[in-house]
Amino acid sequence: MDKIKVITIFGTRPEAIKMAPLVKALEQSDKVENKVCVTAQHREMLDQVLELFNIQPDFDLNIMKAKQSLTGITTRVLEGLEEVFIKEKPDLVLVHGDTTTTFAGALAAFYQKIKVGHVEAGLRTYDKYFPFPEEMNRKLTGAAADLHFAPTAGSRNNLLREGIDPKDIFITGNTVIDAMEFTVEEEYNFSNDELNTIDYNGKKVIMVTAHRRENWGKGIENICNSLKTIVKENHDVELVYLVHLNPVVKDVVQKILGGIERVHLLSPLDTKETHNLMNKCYMVMTDSGGLQEEAPHLGKPVLVLRDVTERPEAVEAGTVELVGTDVNVVVSTANRLIRNKEEYDKMSKAINPYGDGKASERIVAAILEYFNIEKGKYKQFS
Question: Which run of H or of E encompasses 119?
Fold first, then answer.
């Protein structure tokens, strides 16, 4: 074999951000015929990333429906990919992370006896319902995968404990750091005029996202009440909350935080705008997974609005702190970073454990080594 056919699959914005630099790296190899299949589990937000990175999918399943269920997503992805795989007969299918597209993509490949490469493999909370459904999606994908691209040594150790063969695990760093090489600009003007009016130098601007299923209801209420208190107690703070479009989240946020001075409630931004807002802000408060990797790369402390994280390396490195959704804990921790420069510097200057911008190159090299096409070029991230 002197060339392999690879199909790269993703369906949501976070997957697309992290897979885009890998798609570009695969395209640059003359040893790989790469095709891209999107499920469009998230249609509009996915399309923003495709446009940003100038990726034209070869296949678009376009599965998104209003009020879609996890069962519906899974079955539509399985059915759509079956046709693609039977037609294309790839040597390898690449999936990313922990979405329902990821799990269904791996399962569809398994049904056709196609090898699966799992990008961002090995992250665990060991609580199958937290994050839901991502933790189980990730474990089930790992069970079907043949190549495991672990971003860190900690992720590799998780896989080893589960009995994965060491020769099938490659430590690569996280491709999201690669993506930020494309997106962050020091002199950046936002398309949203409201963001251009904020004094990023004179104010301590806190960027917020919070929308995970585990936080729906009381969790989101507590987060919003915490943010309200933080702004009222710190007159040098300005808040930018990128509010998820789901009414379960949006309605609560508007009710508690709407109309408050120095609070900007905005719709989710595209990837480039998000990364550049992160670059300009003082710190990040989020229940997202990806932001725990991205913000430290820019020297921004992250307060994670969850009780557990599948990314413990950032906690150990000191770039991230778990605060959950208890109002007193969230407010006191945020105030400590807002008011104590030494505490802030301790987090902002800690080394990000997630990558050096070369993860995609390592993954391509690992694939070629695995298929005995090119030896000796894969060097693990450390």
Answer: strand 115-119
Grade residue 364 by pLDDT with cuts at 50, 70 and 90.
Answer: very high
Q: Tokens for 316?
A: 């150990």
Terminal-residue alpha carbon distance, the chain? 30
Helices 70-88, 100-111: inter-axial angle, 10-degree rounding? 40
> Does residue 211 have an active-site annotation?
yes
42 is catalytic: no
Taking a C-beta distance cutoff of 8 angstroms, is the pair 380, 358 a contact?
no
Three-state DSSP state, 146: coil
Q: Which position among 42, 76, 96, 98 bears the catalytic label?
A: 98
What is the chain's mean pLDDT, rounded? 95
Is the pTM for the entire model greater than 0.85?
no
Strands (E), 217-369: 237-242, 263-266, 283-286, 302-304, 320-322
CA 5 – CA 9 distance, rounded (Å) = 13
Residue 99: helix, strand or coil by DSSP? coil
Residue count (the chain): 382
Q: Is 342 annotated as catalytic?
A: no
Predicted local distance difference test score (pLDDT) of residue 246: 86
Catalytic residue among 13, 42, 156, 211: 211
Catalytic one among 213, 270, 307, 374?
Answer: 213
List pLDDT tens digits, range 296-309.
Answer: 999 999 999 998 88
**pLDDT, position 215:** 86
Is the CB of residue 78 less than 8 Å from the CB of residue 104? yes
